[in-house]
TrEMBL record:
<keyword id="KW-0808">Transferase</keyword>
<feature type="domain" description="Nucleoside phosphorylase">
    <location>
        <begin position="22"/>
        <end position="269"/>
    </location>
</feature>
<comment type="similarity">
    <text>Belongs to the PNP/MTAP phosphorylase family.</text>
</comment>
<protein>
    <recommendedName>
        <fullName>Purine nucleoside phosphorylase</fullName>
        <ecNumber>2.4.2.1</ecNumber>
    </recommendedName>
</protein>
<dbReference type="InterPro" id="IPR035994">
    <property type="entry name" value="Nucleoside_phosphorylase_sf"/>
</dbReference>
<dbReference type="GO" id="GO:0004731">
    <property type="term" value="F:purine-nucleoside phosphorylase activity"/>
</dbReference>
<dbReference type="InterPro" id="IPR011268">
    <property type="entry name" value="Purine_phosphorylase"/>
</dbReference>
<comment type="pathway">
    <text>Purine metabolism; purine nucleoside salvage.</text>
</comment>
<dbReference type="InterPro" id="IPR000845">
    <property type="entry name" value="Nucleoside_phosphorylase_d"/>
</dbReference>
<dbReference type="GO" id="GO:0009116">
    <property type="term" value="P:nucleoside metabolic process"/>
</dbReference>
<dbReference type="GO" id="GO:0005737">
    <property type="term" value="C:cytoplasm"/>
</dbReference>
<dbReference type="Pfam" id="PF01048">
    <property type="entry name" value="PNP_UDP_1"/>
</dbReference>
<comment type="function">
    <text>The purine nucleoside phosphorylases catalyze the phosphorolytic breakdown of the N-glycosidic bond in the beta-(deoxy)ribonucleoside molecules, with the formation of the corresponding free purine bases and pentose-1-phosphate.</text>
</comment>
<keyword id="KW-0328">Glycosyltransferase</keyword>
<dbReference type="InterPro" id="IPR011270">
    <property type="entry name" value="Pur_Nuc_Pase_Ino/Guo-sp"/>
</dbReference>
Length: 271
């Protein structure tokens, strides 16, 4: 990766009118409706942005949307990239670097995840406090990484504490159940076996998914404060495991999404 390539992507978006956004937002599986609430939107489809990967998952729509939300300039990724689509981790996280070059000062991430913690239920939201990277690689493992930030990036507190506290306060005020926990990121796209769910519980995971962690690592590399919320779409109880139903997962994500949108909108107001 080179600064020249990043600048070409950024210059294209600035030319489209993407000027100095304050907040970047990544929308996860089944969680695209926040984009509909953006005022005066300008869209850039991924296949038109120089050097951008293309979203290959059918329920990820694949565009960047710039506009105003709660009086602040935002840029929203409607459709993200996953390691399981055959991209390398530099591709997966490329949009985070572009959004940072556009000028964002904060990053919000959402995802759909499976609940490992038996006290969490499908339809709950979980504020990610920490994570376990089980993707077998790092988006910082490339030759000239030190041109973009510290090679040995500190990850002692990867999720921004002030934004987490703010989200907890908002959830309490709005009477929204917001669990807190550790997110494990696996490669996928296959779902986990019973034995794998048992292992995830043993190593301290409260939820499992196939995204987010590479983006968070890059945000920390760029010293970009980040906060992340999981929509828990299924309960991963190895003793009562049923076959996965992707359409049900998307449906639960859609049903829970308004609560997540409420949290993000209020957070935008307060920061």
């Amino acid at each position: 990766m080179t600064g020249k390539i990043l600048k070409e992507s950024t210059d294209y978006l600035i030319g489209k009118g993407f000027e100095t956004p304050e907040i970047g937002i990544v929308l996860g599986t089944g969680l695209g409706k926040l984009a509909d609430e953006i005022e005066n939107p300008i869209e850039a489809h991924y296949n038109h942005i120089p050097y951008f990967p293309l979203a290959t998952v059918e329920f990820h729509s694949g565009k960047l949307i710039y506009g105003t939300l709660e009086g602040k300039k935002v840029v929203v990724m409607q459709g993200r990239f996953h390691f399981y689509e055959g991209y390398d981790l530099l591709d997966v996280t490329y949009p985070i670097r572009v959004m940072q070059m556009l000028g964002i000062k904060k990053l919000f991430i959402s995802n759909a995840a499976g609940a490992i913690n038996p006290n969490f239920k499908k339809g709950d939201l979980m504020l990610i406090e920490d994570h376990i990277n089980l993707q077998g690689g790092s988006p910082l493992a490339f030759k000239n990484v030190s041109q973009f930030g510290d090679r040995f990036t500190d990850m002692s507190e990867p999720y921004d504490i002030p934004m987490r506290k703010c989200l907890e306060k908002i959830a309490k005020k709005k009477n929204i159940t917001l669990q807190k926990g550790v997110y494990a990121s696996v490669v996928g796209p296959q779902l986990e076996t019973k034995a794998e769910y048992r292992m995830l519980k043993i190593i301290g995971a409260d939820a499992v998914g196939m995204s987010t962690v590479p983006e968070v690592i890059v945000a920390n590399h760029l010293k970009l404060p980040v906060v992340a919320v999981s929509v828990l779409t299924d309960e991963c109880d190895p003793d009562n495991l049923k076959p996965v139903n992707i359409s049900e997962i998307i449906e639960i994500a859609g049903r829970t999404e308004p609560k997540m949108i409420q949290l993000f909108r209020e957070l935008i107001k307060e920061i």
